Amino acid sequence: MIYGVEEYQNLSINDFQCCSIFEENDNDPTNVCTQRCLRALQSPSLPNERKIRQIHGCRLNMGNLPKCFDKCVSWLHSSDFRMMQQFNFSANCDWSDRLIPGKLYIGPPV
């Protein structure tokens, strides 16, 4: 599914929870992309297209995290949101997008 302008017509602070998509990202240990997402959504005068560009354009986002953000926003704006309380990252996104390419992950952190 392609997420177009319709999904973002009302992009606002109500979509804050979708910024959590960018948290716990080993490629972004200081949460630059999360903060960038929150700032974009807190700017009511910023056109939606520019908000999306800022969120998607964070260079620390690996893989499909921006597409996962799109899915979250689409879900929040759908009727499914009323039935579930939180967007399920594991069911809709790939955890490997948060991992450092080439790093071997074995067991819990030491």
Automatic annotation (TrEMBL):
InterPro entries: Her-1 (IPR015313), Her-1_C (IPR043108), Her-1_sf (IPR036341). Gene3D superfamilies: Caenorhabditis elegans Her-1, C-terminal domain (1.10.150.370). Pfam families: Caenor_Her-1. This is Uncharacterized protein. The lineage of its organism: Eukaryota, Metazoa, Ecdysozoa, Nematoda, Chromadorea.
